[in-house]
Protein backbone atom coordinates (compact mmCIF):
# COMPACT_ATOMS: atom_id res chain seq x y z
CA UNK A 1 0.00 0.00 0.00
CA UNK A 2 1.10 3.58 -0.73
CA UNK A 3 1.74 5.86 2.24
CA UNK A 4 -1.00 8.41 2.77
CA UNK A 5 1.30 11.30 1.92
CA UNK A 6 2.27 9.66 -1.39
CA UNK A 7 -1.36 8.94 -2.24
CA UNK A 8 -2.16 12.59 -1.59
CA UNK A 9 0.50 13.74 -4.04
CA UNK A 10 -0.75 11.35 -6.72
CA UNK A 11 -4.31 12.57 -6.19
CA UNK A 12 -3.25 16.20 -6.41
CA UNK A 13 -1.29 15.61 -9.62
CA UNK A 14 -4.26 13.79 -11.13
CA UNK A 15 -6.48 16.76 -10.47
CA UNK A 16 -3.98 19.12 -12.13
CA UNK A 17 -3.61 16.87 -15.17
CA UNK A 18 -7.35 16.46 -15.56
CA UNK A 19 -7.89 20.19 -15.22
CA UNK A 20 -5.23 20.90 -17.86
CA UNK A 21 -6.75 18.36 -20.24
CA UNK A 22 -10.19 19.89 -19.76
CA UNK A 23 -8.79 23.35 -20.56
CA UNK A 24 -7.05 22.08 -23.69
CA UNK A 25 -10.21 20.33 -24.89
CA UNK A 26 -12.25 23.47 -24.26
CA UNK A 27 -9.76 25.63 -26.17
CA UNK A 28 -9.67 23.12 -29.05
CA UNK A 29 -13.45 23.14 -29.17
CA UNK A 30 -13.50 26.95 -29.38
CA UNK A 31 -10.94 26.98 -32.19
CA UNK A 32 -12.77 24.29 -34.17
CA UNK A 33 -16.08 26.08 -33.69
CA UNK A 34 -14.60 29.35 -34.96
CA UNK A 35 -13.04 27.62 -37.97
CA UNK A 36 -16.32 25.92 -38.84
CA UNK A 37 -18.15 29.22 -38.64
CA UNK A 38 -15.59 30.87 -40.90
CA UNK A 39 -15.76 27.99 -43.37
CA UNK A 40 -19.52 27.99 -43.30
CA UNK A 41 -19.67 31.72 -43.94
CA UNK A 42 -17.26 31.49 -46.85
CA UNK A 43 -19.20 28.58 -48.34
CA UNK A 44 -22.48 30.39 -47.89
CA UNK A 45 -21.23 33.52 -49.64
CA UNK A 46 -19.33 31.56 -52.32
CA UNK A 47 -16.53 34.08 -52.60
CA UNK A 48 -13.11 33.69 -54.17
CA UNK A 49 -10.36 33.34 -51.59
CA UNK A 50 -7.12 34.98 -52.80
CA UNK A 51 -4.73 32.41 -54.17
CA UNK A 52 -7.28 29.62 -54.49
CA UNK A 53 -7.66 29.95 -58.25
CA UNK A 54 -10.89 27.94 -58.21
CA UNK A 55 -14.23 28.71 -59.77
CA UNK A 56 -16.60 30.89 -57.78
CA UNK A 57 -19.92 32.65 -58.12
CA UNK A 58 -20.66 35.93 -56.42
CA UNK A 59 -23.72 35.79 -54.22
CA UNK A 60 -26.37 38.43 -53.95
CA UNK A 61 -26.03 40.81 -50.98
CA UNK A 62 -27.27 39.15 -47.81
CA UNK A 63 -29.98 40.54 -45.57
CA UNK A 64 -27.36 41.30 -42.94
CA UNK A 65 -25.78 44.56 -43.99
CA UNK A 66 -24.49 47.93 -42.88
CA UNK A 67 -24.95 51.17 -44.74
CA UNK A 68 -22.13 53.11 -46.33
CA UNK A 69 -23.12 56.15 -48.34
CA UNK A 70 -26.52 54.56 -48.81
CA UNK A 71 -25.20 51.20 -50.06
CA UNK A 72 -25.40 47.67 -48.66
CA UNK A 73 -22.27 46.01 -47.32
CA UNK A 74 -22.84 42.29 -47.83
CA UNK A 75 -20.93 39.49 -46.13
CA UNK A 76 -18.61 38.91 -49.11
CA UNK A 77 -17.62 42.58 -49.01
CA UNK A 78 -16.95 42.31 -45.28
CA UNK A 79 -14.83 39.20 -45.74
CA UNK A 80 -12.73 40.96 -48.38
CA UNK A 81 -12.28 43.93 -46.05
CA UNK A 82 -11.24 41.58 -43.26
CA UNK A 83 -8.70 39.90 -45.54
CA UNK A 84 -7.26 43.29 -46.45
CA UNK A 85 -6.96 44.17 -42.76
CA UNK A 86 -5.35 40.87 -41.77
CA UNK A 87 -3.15 40.20 -44.80
CA UNK A 88 -2.11 43.71 -45.74
CA UNK A 89 1.59 44.52 -45.34
CA UNK A 90 3.46 47.80 -45.26
CA UNK A 91 5.33 49.01 -48.30
CA UNK A 92 9.02 49.91 -48.17
CA UNK A 93 8.34 53.50 -47.12
CA UNK A 94 6.07 52.45 -44.27
CA UNK A 95 3.40 54.88 -45.44
CA UNK A 96 1.06 52.56 -47.34
CA UNK A 97 -0.57 49.23 -46.65
CA UNK A 98 -0.68 46.74 -49.52
CA UNK A 99 -3.08 43.81 -50.00
CA UNK A 100 -1.93 41.73 -52.99
CA UNK A 101 -4.67 39.70 -54.68
CA UNK A 102 -7.46 40.80 -52.33
CA UNK A 103 -10.02 39.59 -54.90
CA UNK A 104 -8.88 37.02 -57.47
CA UNK A 105 -10.59 36.17 -60.72
CA UNK A 106 -11.52 32.59 -61.49
CA UNK A 107 -8.44 32.32 -63.72
CA UNK A 108 -6.26 34.33 -61.33
CA UNK A 109 -3.77 31.49 -61.00
CA UNK A 110 -3.14 31.16 -64.75
CA UNK A 111 0.57 30.52 -65.27
CA UNK A 112 0.84 30.75 -69.06
CA UNK A 113 0.87 33.66 -71.48
CA UNK A 114 0.95 37.34 -70.54
CA UNK A 115 -0.88 39.38 -67.89
CA UNK A 116 -1.98 42.94 -68.56
CA UNK A 117 -0.89 44.95 -65.51
CA UNK A 118 -2.45 48.28 -64.62
CA UNK A 119 -3.41 50.55 -61.73
CA UNK A 120 -6.03 53.17 -61.00
CA UNK A 121 -7.87 55.19 -58.41
CA UNK A 122 -11.39 54.37 -57.24
CA UNK A 123 -12.83 56.92 -59.66
CA UNK A 124 -11.45 55.11 -62.72
CA UNK A 125 -12.56 51.57 -61.87
CA UNK A 126 -15.33 51.84 -64.45
CA UNK A 127 -12.69 51.62 -67.20
CA UNK A 128 -11.75 48.04 -66.28
CA UNK A 129 -14.54 46.20 -68.22
CA UNK A 130 -13.66 47.77 -71.58
CA UNK A 131 -9.97 47.11 -70.96
CA UNK A 132 -10.68 43.45 -70.15
CA UNK A 133 -12.89 43.10 -73.22
CA UNK A 134 -10.19 44.38 -75.56
CA UNK A 135 -7.40 42.39 -73.90
CA UNK A 136 -9.26 39.04 -73.71
CA UNK A 137 -6.86 37.59 -71.16
CA UNK A 138 -5.86 37.81 -67.51
CA UNK A 139 -5.55 41.27 -65.96
CA UNK A 140 -4.03 42.41 -62.67
CA UNK A 141 -5.23 45.74 -61.25
CA UNK A 142 -3.95 47.62 -58.20
CA UNK A 143 -6.53 50.07 -56.82
CA UNK A 144 -5.63 53.10 -54.72
CA UNK A 145 -8.10 54.22 -52.07
CA UNK A 146 -7.93 56.69 -49.18
CA UNK A 147 -9.97 56.74 -45.98
CA UNK A 148 -13.36 55.12 -46.22
CA UNK A 149 -12.88 54.86 -49.97
CA UNK A 150 -11.41 51.45 -49.11
CA UNK A 151 -14.91 50.27 -48.22
CA UNK A 152 -16.39 51.83 -51.34
CA UNK A 153 -13.64 50.37 -53.54
CA UNK A 154 -14.35 46.84 -52.29
CA UNK A 155 -18.05 47.34 -52.94
CA UNK A 156 -17.30 48.63 -56.43
CA UNK A 157 -15.02 45.67 -57.20
CA UNK A 158 -17.67 43.13 -56.19
CA UNK A 159 -20.25 45.07 -58.18
CA UNK A 160 -17.96 44.99 -61.23
CA UNK A 161 -17.66 41.23 -60.90
CA UNK A 162 -21.45 40.87 -60.80
CA UNK A 163 -22.08 43.20 -63.74
CA UNK A 164 -19.35 41.80 -65.98
CA UNK A 165 -18.63 38.04 -66.06
CA UNK A 166 -15.38 38.63 -67.94
CA UNK A 167 -14.13 40.78 -65.04
CA UNK A 168 -15.07 38.09 -62.53
CA UNK A 169 -13.33 35.52 -64.70
CA UNK A 170 -10.10 37.29 -65.62
CA UNK A 171 -9.28 40.13 -63.23
CA UNK A 172 -7.33 40.05 -59.98
CA UNK A 173 -7.69 43.13 -57.77
CA UNK A 174 -5.14 44.34 -55.23
CA UNK A 175 -5.66 47.24 -52.81
CA UNK A 176 -3.23 49.94 -51.70
CA UNK A 177 -4.18 52.53 -49.09
CA UNK A 178 -2.32 54.99 -46.86
CA UNK A 179 -1.95 54.27 -43.17
CA UNK A 180 -4.87 55.63 -41.19
CA UNK A 181 -7.51 54.27 -43.54
CA UNK A 182 -10.19 52.00 -41.97
CA UNK A 183 -8.27 48.70 -42.06
CA UNK A 184 -5.57 50.29 -39.89
CA UNK A 185 -7.92 52.09 -37.51
CA UNK A 186 -10.11 48.99 -37.06
CA UNK A 187 -8.07 45.89 -37.98
CA UNK A 188 -10.94 43.43 -37.56
CA UNK A 189 -14.15 45.46 -37.28
CA UNK A 190 -14.67 48.26 -39.76
CA UNK A 191 -16.25 51.52 -38.63
CA UNK A 192 -20.01 51.72 -38.75
CA UNK A 193 -20.99 53.93 -41.68
CA UNK A 194 -23.73 55.47 -39.56
CA UNK A 195 -21.12 56.94 -37.23
CA UNK A 196 -19.27 60.20 -37.76
CA UNK A 197 -16.03 58.38 -38.62
CA UNK A 198 -16.42 58.72 -42.37
CA UNK A 199 -17.28 62.40 -42.04
CA UNK A 200 -13.91 63.01 -40.41
CA UNK A 201 -11.98 61.02 -43.01
CA UNK A 202 -10.57 62.79 -46.05
CA UNK A 203 -12.78 61.62 -48.88
CA UNK A 204 -13.74 63.17 -52.19
CA UNK A 205 -17.23 61.74 -51.88
CA UNK A 206 -19.75 63.91 -50.08
CA UNK A 207 -21.88 62.17 -47.43
CA UNK A 208 -24.98 62.58 -49.57
CA UNK A 209 -23.37 60.90 -52.59
CA UNK A 210 -24.10 57.22 -53.22
CA UNK A 211 -21.90 54.56 -54.75
CA UNK A 212 -23.46 55.41 -58.10
CA UNK A 213 -21.16 58.46 -58.14
CA UNK A 214 -18.36 56.00 -58.88
CA UNK A 215 -20.56 53.25 -60.25
CA UNK A 216 -18.20 50.88 -62.08
CA UNK A 217 -21.10 49.36 -64.02
CA UNK A 218 -21.91 52.71 -65.62
CA UNK A 219 -19.28 53.07 -68.33
CA UNK A 220 -21.00 56.00 -70.04
CA UNK A 221 -20.15 58.54 -67.33
CA UNK A 222 -17.41 61.08 -67.86
CA UNK A 223 -14.12 60.94 -65.98
CA UNK A 224 -14.75 63.74 -63.54
CA UNK A 225 -12.00 62.64 -61.16
CA UNK A 226 -8.54 61.23 -61.72
CA UNK A 227 -5.59 60.53 -59.49
CA UNK A 228 -3.86 63.81 -60.29
CA UNK A 229 -6.84 65.74 -58.93
CA UNK A 230 -6.57 64.17 -55.48
CA UNK A 231 -6.40 66.74 -52.72
CA UNK A 232 -5.70 64.55 -49.73
CA UNK A 233 -3.40 66.57 -47.55
CA UNK A 234 0.03 65.01 -47.30
CA UNK A 235 -0.86 61.98 -49.48
CA UNK A 236 0.67 61.30 -52.88
CA UNK A 237 -0.50 58.89 -55.55
CA UNK A 238 2.08 56.06 -55.46
CA UNK A 239 1.90 54.98 -59.11
CA UNK A 240 5.07 52.86 -59.06
CA UNK A 241 4.07 51.13 -55.83
CA UNK A 242 0.73 50.34 -57.48
CA UNK A 243 2.44 48.95 -60.58
CA UNK A 244 4.68 46.72 -58.49
CA UNK A 245 1.71 45.55 -56.43
CA UNK A 246 -0.24 44.58 -59.55
CA UNK A 247 2.86 42.82 -60.89
CA UNK A 248 3.16 40.72 -57.73
CA UNK A 249 -0.37 39.41 -58.23
CA UNK A 250 0.39 38.27 -61.80
CA UNK A 251 1.31 34.58 -62.22
CA UNK A 252 2.24 34.45 -65.92
CA UNK A 253 5.80 34.51 -67.33
CA UNK A 254 5.15 37.78 -69.20
CA UNK A 255 3.58 41.10 -68.21
CA UNK A 256 2.32 44.09 -70.20
CA UNK A 257 2.20 47.23 -68.03
CA UNK A 258 -0.10 49.97 -69.35
CA UNK A 259 -2.19 52.81 -67.94
CA UNK A 260 -5.83 52.04 -67.25
CA UNK A 261 -7.04 54.50 -69.92
CA UNK A 262 -5.15 52.77 -72.75
CA UNK A 263 -6.60 50.14 -75.08
CA UNK A 264 -4.42 47.37 -76.56
CA UNK A 265 -4.95 46.36 -80.18
CA UNK A 266 -7.47 43.60 -80.75
CA UNK A 267 -6.11 40.09 -80.29
CA UNK A 268 -2.75 41.20 -78.86
CA UNK A 269 -2.93 38.85 -75.86
CA UNK A 270 -3.37 35.70 -77.93
CA UNK A 271 -1.02 36.92 -80.66
CA UNK A 272 1.87 37.48 -78.27
CA UNK A 273 1.25 34.18 -76.49
CA UNK A 274 1.48 32.41 -79.86
CA UNK A 275 4.53 34.47 -80.83
CA UNK A 276 6.34 33.57 -77.59
CA UNK A 277 5.53 29.89 -78.04
CA UNK A 278 6.69 29.79 -81.65
CA UNK A 279 9.90 31.69 -80.85
CA UNK A 280 10.67 29.50 -77.85
CA UNK A 281 10.61 32.49 -75.51
CA UNK A 282 9.88 31.43 -71.94
CA UNK A 283 10.16 34.59 -69.86
CA UNK A 284 11.92 32.50 -67.20
CA UNK A 285 14.99 34.09 -65.67
CA UNK A 286 17.97 32.16 -67.01
CA UNK A 287 20.95 33.25 -69.08
CA UNK A 288 20.36 30.26 -71.34
CA UNK A 289 16.87 31.40 -72.32
CA UNK A 290 16.29 33.65 -75.31
CA UNK A 291 13.81 36.04 -73.71
CA UNK A 292 15.79 37.04 -70.63
CA UNK A 293 17.25 40.33 -71.75
CA UNK A 294 14.54 41.35 -74.22
CA UNK A 295 11.40 43.44 -74.02
CA UNK A 296 8.96 43.86 -76.93
CA UNK A 297 7.89 47.42 -77.63
CA UNK A 298 4.25 48.15 -78.48
CA UNK A 299 3.89 51.56 -80.23
CA UNK A 300 1.45 53.95 -78.55
CA UNK A 301 -0.98 56.35 -80.24
CA UNK A 302 -3.62 58.90 -79.23
CA UNK A 303 -7.00 59.00 -80.92
CA UNK A 304 -9.69 61.67 -80.85
CA UNK A 305 -12.18 61.41 -78.03
CA UNK A 306 -15.10 60.64 -80.36
CA UNK A 307 -13.18 58.36 -82.75
CA UNK A 308 -13.80 54.65 -83.12
CA UNK A 309 -11.10 52.43 -81.63
CA UNK A 310 -9.07 50.88 -84.48
CA UNK A 311 -9.12 47.09 -84.65
CA UNK A 312 -5.89 46.67 -86.64
CA UNK A 313 -2.87 48.54 -87.93
CA UNK A 314 -4.42 49.44 -91.29
CA UNK A 315 -7.37 51.14 -89.58
CA UNK A 316 -5.00 53.01 -87.27
CA UNK A 317 -2.93 54.31 -90.19
CA UNK A 318 -6.09 55.50 -92.00
CA UNK A 319 -7.12 57.36 -88.85
CA UNK A 320 -3.69 58.98 -88.71
CA UNK A 321 -4.06 60.17 -92.30
CA UNK A 322 -7.42 61.76 -91.41
CA UNK A 323 -5.97 63.44 -88.34
CA UNK A 324 -7.95 61.25 -85.94
CA UNK A 325 -4.82 59.58 -84.53
CA UNK A 326 -1.26 60.63 -83.75
CA UNK A 327 1.77 59.28 -81.83
CA UNK A 328 1.33 59.24 -78.07
CA UNK A 329 2.48 62.40 -76.27
CA UNK A 330 3.10 64.16 -79.59
CA UNK A 331 2.22 67.54 -78.08
CA UNK A 332 3.39 67.04 -74.49
CA UNK A 333 6.71 65.25 -74.96
CA UNK A 334 7.43 64.04 -78.49
CA UNK A 335 11.02 63.09 -77.60
CA UNK A 336 9.63 60.72 -74.94
CA UNK A 337 8.17 58.54 -77.70
CA UNK A 338 9.88 59.42 -80.99
CA UNK A 339 12.66 56.85 -80.62
CA UNK A 340 10.04 54.18 -81.24
CA UNK A 341 10.52 55.36 -84.85
CA UNK A 342 6.90 55.67 -85.90
CA UNK A 343 7.93 56.32 -89.50
CA UNK A 344 9.62 52.90 -89.74
CA UNK A 345 6.81 51.13 -87.88
CA UNK A 346 4.06 52.59 -90.08
CA UNK A 347 5.82 51.44 -93.26
CA UNK A 348 6.93 48.01 -92.17
CA UNK A 349 4.89 44.86 -91.61
CA UNK A 350 1.30 45.11 -90.56
CA UNK A 351 -1.89 43.14 -90.92
CA UNK A 352 -5.12 43.79 -92.81
CA UNK A 353 -6.93 41.34 -90.56
CA UNK A 354 -8.54 42.12 -87.23
CA UNK A 355 -6.06 41.34 -84.49
CA UNK A 356 -2.37 40.59 -84.65
CA UNK A 357 -2.06 37.27 -86.50
CA UNK A 358 1.48 36.30 -87.34
CA UNK A 359 3.05 38.75 -84.87
CA UNK A 360 6.79 39.29 -85.31
CA UNK A 361 9.46 41.89 -84.60
CA UNK A 362 10.40 44.63 -87.08
CA UNK A 363 13.59 46.19 -85.69
CA UNK A 364 15.62 46.88 -82.56
CA UNK A 365 15.89 50.28 -80.89
CA UNK A 366 18.83 51.32 -78.74
CA UNK A 367 17.50 53.22 -75.73
CA UNK A 368 18.12 56.95 -75.64
CA UNK A 369 17.09 59.52 -73.08
CA UNK A 370 14.17 60.22 -72.47
CA UNK A 371 12.45 57.35 -74.31
CA UNK A 372 9.70 55.65 -72.25
CA UNK A 373 7.92 53.08 -74.44
CA UNK A 374 5.24 50.59 -73.44
CA UNK A 375 6.35 46.98 -73.79
CA UNK A 376 5.65 43.33 -73.06
CA UNK A 377 8.37 41.99 -70.77
CA UNK A 378 9.39 38.92 -68.82
CA UNK A 379 7.86 39.04 -65.35
CA UNK A 380 11.40 38.98 -63.95
CA UNK A 381 12.34 42.49 -65.17
CA UNK A 382 13.45 44.92 -62.43
CA UNK A 383 10.61 46.47 -60.44
CA UNK A 384 9.61 50.12 -60.60
CA UNK A 385 11.30 52.46 -58.12
CA UNK A 386 8.59 53.24 -55.59
CA UNK A 387 10.11 56.55 -54.54
CA UNK A 388 8.64 58.08 -57.70
CA UNK A 389 5.11 59.31 -57.04
CA UNK A 390 2.69 61.69 -58.73
CA UNK A 391 3.77 63.09 -62.12
CA UNK A 392 7.07 62.64 -63.89
CA UNK A 393 9.88 60.10 -64.36
CA UNK A 394 8.00 57.18 -62.81
CA UNK A 395 8.03 54.99 -65.93
CA UNK A 396 11.23 56.23 -67.54
CA UNK A 397 13.23 55.33 -64.44
CA UNK A 398 12.39 51.66 -64.95
CA UNK A 399 13.09 51.79 -68.70
CA UNK A 400 16.41 53.44 -67.94
CA UNK A 401 17.31 50.59 -65.58
CA UNK A 402 16.44 48.00 -68.20
CA UNK A 403 18.86 49.71 -70.58
CA UNK A 404 21.68 49.78 -68.02
CA UNK A 405 20.95 46.16 -67.07
CA UNK A 406 21.57 45.09 -70.67
CA UNK A 407 18.05 44.62 -72.05
CA UNK A 408 17.35 45.09 -75.74
CA UNK A 409 14.17 46.66 -77.12
CA UNK A 410 12.49 44.95 -80.10
CA UNK A 411 9.51 46.66 -81.76
CA UNK A 412 6.51 44.46 -82.62
CA UNK A 413 4.93 44.97 -86.03
CA UNK A 414 1.13 44.77 -85.80
CA UNK A 415 0.71 45.47 -82.09
CA UNK A 416 -0.21 48.88 -80.66
CA UNK A 417 -2.03 50.61 -77.82
CA UNK A 418 -4.23 53.69 -78.08
CA UNK A 419 -5.18 56.39 -75.61
CA UNK A 420 -8.63 57.91 -76.11
CA UNK A 421 -8.29 61.67 -76.28
CA UNK A 422 -5.38 63.85 -77.39
CA UNK A 423 -2.93 64.72 -74.62
CA UNK A 424 -2.58 68.51 -74.36
CA UNK A 425 -1.06 70.99 -71.93
CA UNK A 426 -4.57 72.02 -70.90
CA UNK A 427 -5.31 68.46 -69.79
CA UNK A 428 -2.58 68.50 -67.14
CA UNK A 429 -3.21 69.38 -63.51
CA UNK A 430 -1.87 72.61 -61.94
CA UNK A 431 0.72 70.90 -59.71
CA UNK A 432 2.37 69.02 -62.57
CA UNK A 433 5.46 71.27 -62.88
CA UNK A 434 6.27 71.13 -59.17
CA UNK A 435 5.92 67.34 -59.08
CA UNK A 436 7.99 66.91 -62.21
CA UNK A 437 10.84 69.05 -60.87
CA UNK A 438 10.92 67.07 -57.61
CA UNK A 439 11.08 63.79 -59.54
CA UNK A 440 13.70 65.21 -61.91
CA UNK A 441 16.10 65.65 -58.98
CA UNK A 442 15.24 62.16 -57.76
CA UNK A 443 15.93 60.78 -61.23
CA UNK A 444 19.44 62.27 -61.18
CA UNK A 445 20.11 60.47 -57.91
CA UNK A 446 18.56 57.30 -59.33
CA UNK A 447 20.96 57.29 -62.29
CA UNK A 448 23.97 57.62 -59.97
CA UNK A 449 22.67 54.67 -57.94
CA UNK A 450 22.43 52.56 -61.11
CA UNK A 451 26.19 52.87 -61.61
CA UNK A 452 26.74 51.17 -58.27
CA UNK A 453 23.98 48.63 -58.89
CA UNK A 454 25.39 47.57 -62.28
CA UNK A 455 29.15 48.19 -61.93
CA UNK A 456 30.06 45.99 -64.92
CA UNK A 457 27.67 47.75 -67.31
CA UNK A 458 29.05 50.31 -69.74
CA UNK A 459 25.58 51.69 -70.42
CA UNK A 460 24.35 54.94 -68.92
CA UNK A 461 21.01 56.82 -68.96
CA UNK A 462 22.13 59.81 -71.03
Report what the structure shows:
The protein is an alpha/beta fold and 462 residues long. It has two domains: 46-252, no CATH class; 260-462, no CATH class. The protein is 35% helix and 16% strand. The strands form three sheets. A ten-stranded mixed beta sheet has the order 3-4-7-6-5-8-14-10-15-13, with helices on both faces. Strands 9-16-11-12 form a four-stranded mixed beta sheet. Strands 1-2 form a two-stranded antiparallel ribbon. β3 and β4 (96-103) form a beta hairpin. α2 (75-87) crosses α4. The radius of gyration is 26 Å and the shape is globular. The termini are far apart. The model is unreliable at 33-73, 185-213, 221-232, 285-291 and 351-356 (pLDDT under 50).
Brief description of this entry?
This protein is of the alpha/beta class and 462 residues long.
Overall 3D geometry?
globular
Gap from first CA to last CA:
95 Å
Number of strands: 16
Q: Cα-atom Rg, whole angstroms? A: 26 Å
Helical run tally = 13
Number of domains as seen in the coordinates: 2
Which terms would index this structure?
alpha/beta, 462 residues, 16 strands, globular, ten-stranded mixed beta sheet
